[in-house]
């Protein structure tokens, strides 16, 4: 499959056309950028969908596009489309496939991913699944759901292949001297995430195949409730209607960590670079990242095999979900320890990284409530959960992605994003997400009728309406604030301040040792050689406050 | 060999660089006939180690295992949760198919032994025999399906039949991938040797034996599930 990839590479040197430079290219940088463009498109589409939902919730009278006709079905389709876009095409694709494809080979000193053609194929499959999801949203519900399932299966397949590519690249293609302890934490996160992806996306693929078979050849792996209603009781006893939900949640629970793991890596990397300090307790952070992967995998694994015979063993589930607190706490302690007493450079990238830490703490605290099963089952309504996972998964991950984008934009395009616009965008977004999602938590606690007797429900519902309206207005402002980012991005792409030096942030990893954007083949005739760990900042006795990984000891002593 | 990790002794590495810059890099086997020095930057001389193929197949096999485990656990959960389970009468030809597949694993190993004994014609003979047995197995599975259909057992008849078709179908698709790999190894052009014949044969054999074992597991599951 990858046998004549070098022939393809050679073909590209002879002046390829536009398609050859973009969609047909097997260059990991081009593919990484393609994923980022896809994610950028999807995130704004998804944001528009969320606005439609918020407006419809508060002012149901307003006629909105896509919400005419059978409103209930269209609203469900809208929610599904918003969720699929954000989770698959943005949160899964951008930090892992996007930044990972571009920077993993650069950071480990490889010239290419292990299987460039497989990589290109994965990108095509991902793009096709975006198209499929969009058509599914526009189509009638019955065909729509079938198409949606097929698109998800395709996306799973692409993520599987990506995961294999990432792990093999990290295992076998590292440059000389790039031992495991010297790997940047971003690479560790991408690597662990790659392995986790190969494991859990095959579960989603299997579930999708069964579901597709249900819909296309009318098998009954996951019989719908209305079908069971018309059957005799002995027949109904054959089915566990929750099977799909369980298979799906085995995947979906781990999917949270799939989205978060690269973001942990990115944030740790940014915090260290802009604190000008080594990552505090770096080895422990690597273990914690492994722990997140392992626990994230076990959360469903345990549920599936140990309790496969007994679907209701929430104790194990709850215990595992809580035990994720340990690696999360280690990460948090490391971030705070890195920031402690540091000469922090508060640029936009760093602001977003610190914003990530803040959101992670806020979301993690509400997560503790949800890990306790009693509260999750009895007292918490949908809105609490919506608020929780948007804060910790959606928004926090977006902050890490934005931080990484501000950090790597000079390397990607040879220009800087505008810092002033970036800071305005950060503060508006930071305030905006708390204004939207904190009241959602409160609303979730407030509106749960079980807790209250009848007389107080009326009083509560009087309070709820203005809160809902407030959330919607805040959401509109939040989305408008993203216009600043879009403008900044497009303007800087063509007019941004040009970067002459290779290493504007004075960072240590290998990608900063090549020009911006990196040339085809990344490194010159001789591959890079690595002499030190990834976070040698403020080393005693060295003139500069950082020592790049590729500097040999002699070159460092010159700087003394 | 660049691309593999080296011991962290820094002095040793520095010596390496000095040597590397001095002489034209040796061991540059697949950069041989392409002439033109303009491709130096394309980084072909640091061509990724062939180890990546065996690493990839290991990870891929774990992933495939997860896929079938998800199906198997769905089977177990539904089987245990049901009081009335309509069983599928498994066609006897499945046993013949199983023997064929098991035999193919042995011929594959025989073929690889011929290769290590530098007997290319013997290798080729056994390799094609393996391929033939693989195709025969898939054909046998098709016959099994036809027999079930003739009995009026379709994929949507009951849950047991659904699982039978899903298990055998998914396995057959994966096995056809293996047949493709076998064919690729026997008919690949000799000038495309980025991966040596023995490595290619070894990687294919991992996959093939895995598919073999997986089939035995699935069949046992189907029998015990009755």
Helices, strands, pairings?
The complex is a heterodimer of chains A (560) and B (226).
Chain A: H1 5-13, H2 18-21, H3 28-58, H4 71-108, H5 116-138, H6 141-172, H7 185-216, H8 225-229, H9 233-236, H10 243-275, H11 282-306, H12 314-323, H13 325-339, H14 348-371, H15 373-378, H16 382-413, H17 419-446, H18 454-495, H19 553-558
Chain B: H1 10-22, H2 51-81, H3 93-116, H4 120-150, H5 159-187, H6 197-224
Helix pairs in contact in B: 2-5, 2-6, 3-4, 3-6, 4-5, 5-6
The biggest beta sheet of chain A, please?
A: none
The major beta sheet of chain B can be summarized as: none
Q: Could you give me the name of the CATH homologous superfamily of the largest domain in chain B?
A: Cytochrome c oxidase, subunit III, four-helix bundle
Quickly give the CATH architecture of the largest domain in chain B: Up-down Bundle
Termini of chain B, distance in Å?
Answer: 55 Å
Q: Gap between N and C termini of chain A, in Å?
A: 50 Å
Indicate the proportion of strand residues of chain B: under 5%
Give the percentage of residues in beta strands of chain A: under 5%
Which structural class do you get from the secondary structure elements of chain A? mainly alpha
Indicate how many domains the architecture of chain B comprises.
2
Count of strand segments of chain A: 0
Principal-axis shape of chain B? elongated
Calculate Rg of chain B over CA atoms: 24 Å
Main attributes of the structure:
heterodimer; A: 560 residues; mainly alpha; 71% helix; 0% strand; globular; disordered N terminus; B: 226 residues; Four Helix Bundle (Hemerythrin (Met), subunit A); 2 domains; 6 helices; elongated
Give an overview of the whole structure.
The complex is a heterodimer of chains A (560) and B (226). Chain A is mainly α and 560 residues long. Chain A has a domain at 346-498. Chain A has 19 helices and no strands. Chain A has helices at 5-13, 18-21, 28-58, 71-108, 116-138, 141-172, 185-216, 225-229, 233-236, 243-275, 282-306, 314-323, 325-339, 348-371, 373-378, 382-413, 419-446, 454-495, 553-558. In chain A, helix 4 runs antiparallel to helix 7 and helix 14 runs parallel beside helix 17. By secondary structure, chain B is mainly alpha-helical. Chain B folds into two domains: 1-49, no CATH class; 51-224, Cytochrome c oxidase, subunit III, four-helix bundle (Four Helix Bundle (Hemerythrin (Met), subunit A), Up-down Bundle), CATH 1.20.120. Helices cover 69% and strands 0% of the residues of chain B. The N and C termini of chain B lie far apart (55 Å).
